[in-house]
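Troubleshooting entry. Yesterday's outputs looked truncated, so today I'm pasting the complete records for two proteins to confirm everything comes through intact. If either block looks cut off, that's the bug. Protein one:
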Amino acid sequence: MTTINTNSALEGMYWDTEKKVADKNNGALTQSDFFALLTQQLAYQDPTKPVENDQMIAQMTNFTMADGITKLNDNFSSLAQSMSSNQALQASSLVGRSVLTQSEQLVFTGESLSRGQINLEQPADNMKVIITKPNGELVSTFNVDQPQLGKNEFAWDGTNQAGETVAAGLYNISVEVSARGKTENVPVQVYTPVSSVSMGNNGNGITLNLLGIGAVKLADVLEVSYG
């Protein structure tokens, strides 16, 4: 009895997926495809009912518009990449400088004053800055003289209540404002040195890595300082 090996006979009947040509357009129709469709449409049209001139012009216009939109999208993509590169270059120039952001943490470098500001929207009789360690231990308190509406700047020299210079590091900061016998906490903005810049992977945008505090969005920066 003769045995036929069907496997070898069928080998050539299967598609070789490894040799398949990649679709560079990801299945999208190009202008050439549109014109090919138009040619086929004209070739197979009913001779008794030919395509009207205005219909052909309308189709040609649609094809041209589709091609124009594709090119416009490509141009916008290139523009977005260019803007991102330019923004990254500008952001890199901030390394070594200090930026103002809203924060509940204050960095003392041990080499310069720690600065910040409080924006008042209502009149206040007294404004007190409170600085504590991360464990909640009180380090220093001081008043901001003559608080006024709008920007009120302050600076901390890195000394504690006894006048001793504390270690460089990260401290918590809060601000209490008193008006007509009522006391409340208000947001505080601090200057922090920029240690590095992240170019923004996964669509997160450009972020600044602040010394001790961590990453903040470039859009959250309120002001830039040399010191």
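Protein two, checking that the full record survives here as well:
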Amino acid sequence: MPSLPQMSREVRLATLPDGLPKPEHFVVAEVPLPRPDDGQVLVRNRFFHVFAALRTLIGGSMKGAPLPPLRPGDTLLGPAIGEVVSATGDSGPQAGDLVSHWLGWREYAVVPVGQVTPLGDALPDPVAHLGQGGLAYAALTRDAEVRPGDTVFVSGAAGGVGSLAGQIARLLGAGQVIGSTSSREKADRLISELGYGAAVIRGAAPIEEQLAKAAPDGIDVYLDNVGGDQLQAAVAAARPGARFVLVGALSGQMSPHGTGGTSPVELDTAQLIVKRISIQAFQGHDEQARSQWLERFGRWLRAGDITFPHVRVAGIDHAPRALHELLEGRHFGTVIVEL
């Protein structure tokens, strides 16, 4: 591979943080360019996704987490998009193909053929594959079963999931969509750019009071990215038969205390029973929902019915800072590092 560099860079965890990870807890290491074996491809990463759940992996305190904990010296990981530059055999992705995989946070990655997904032309901009709309779509259509006229509340509405969830709920026929966020600036953007009908702001007043004002007749669906007092407020605002889907636990992951592996909350179970509220965890991705989402997302993007709010951070050297800023709530939409 004479046209390829001899070395590659990757972001590694240097030390375990006490609280939220900061740039000094990481190092951008230079390593020999990895070489693929049979059944593997070498991918030059072009983009990777920076996501809050890394805090939980770095803390390593959540039992049963789907990904292994990160220890000092480990390379970070996450969704990435890249170009295949070397492949063995004639089956599977070939050089020049654009693919997605889970070995982000590095310039080059050797990935088993079975763990890369060719992107094709389903979306007008390949970087949109790093959005979390597929998660929001499955949660709203399959788990919560949003119905025309529903009042939908989305917590963490300015994040990667929420910034697409509100738009999806509206396109599915929701009568009112309410989002929560951390500042007046973000609240204004939710309403002016993403079609939210109202927004509640954490810290401005009790969430329960703000939500009661925004939805005086109650809510039918709650897409929970946060937990904590926002989940409590949703229970108080729920209509009989409301459907809750638990997607994230940002109240724990973005807390400066602890390790990000827990998100405790006290709920009034009497209200759950009286109102017949159903609460379930997000049931994961499935191929049928993913295929349907890509088809609809591509069509909505091309028609201008939906946008993909995201922030691009240039260069792997700035990736640790991007993670710290994400955990501090500074960004709007999905955070992506562009290599």
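Both blocks look complete. Sanity check on protein two: The first helix runs from residue 54 to 59.
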